[in-house]
Amino acid sequence: MKRIQLNTAGFITLFFLTACGTVGNNFDSSQIKSIQSDVTSQEEIFERFGAPFKKGVENDQTMWTYQFDKWNAVGSAQSKDLVILFDNKNIVKAYRYTTSNPKKP
C-alpha cells in the first residue's frame, strides 16, 4: 500500500513540475505604441525589442515575430505576440499585436 501512495505522490509532483512552461522571449509591450507604419525602421524595432523570436519572409518581405507564452497547471496562462512586416527598405509596413491580457499594453 505504501508503494502505491509513493507512486501517486510522485506522479502528482511530476505533473505539477511538468505542467508549466514558456515559449519565446518576454518583450516590453509598452513600446508597441511607439511603432508607426511607414516610419519606424527595422533598426529601431531591434533597439526597442531586441532580437525577434522568429524571422520569416512573406511575399518577399521580411517578417519578425516576437512571442511570449507562459502557462502552468494552477494559474492562468499569459500570451502576447507581435508580428511586424517590413517593406523592402526595412521600414515597418504593418504590424499586429495580440495578447491574452487586453488590459495591459
What does it look like?
The chain is 24% helix and 35% strand. It is of the alpha+beta class and 105 residues long. It has a single domain, classed as Beta-lactamase Inhibitory Protein, Chain:B, domain 1 (2-Layer Sandwich), CATH 3.30.1450. Strands 1, 2, 3, 4 and 5 form a five-stranded antiparallel sheet that branches. A hairpin with a 5-residue loop joins strand 4 (78-86) and strand 5 (92-99). It starts with a helix and ends in a 6-residue tail after the last strand. The model has no long low-confidence stretch (mean pLDDT 85).
What is the topology?
Elements: H1 2-18, E1 21-24, H2 42-49, E2 54-58, E3 61-71, E4 78-86, E5 92-99
Antiparallel strand pairs: 1-3, 2-3, 3-4, 4-5
Strand fraction equals 35-45%
Number of strands: 5
Question: What is CATH's topology name?
Answer: Beta-lactamase Inhibitory Protein, Chain:B, domain 1
Please report the distance between the alpha carbons of the first and last residues. 53 Å
Number of domains: 1
Q: Could you say which overall geometry the principal axes of the C-alpha atoms support? A: elongated
The main sheet comes to:
5 strands, antiparallel
Number of discrete helical segments: 2
Give the CATH level 1 class.
Alpha Beta
Class by SSE composition? alpha+beta
Q: What is the H-and-E element order?
A: HEHEEEE
Quote the average pLDDT: 85
By CATH, the architecture is named 2-Layer Sandwich
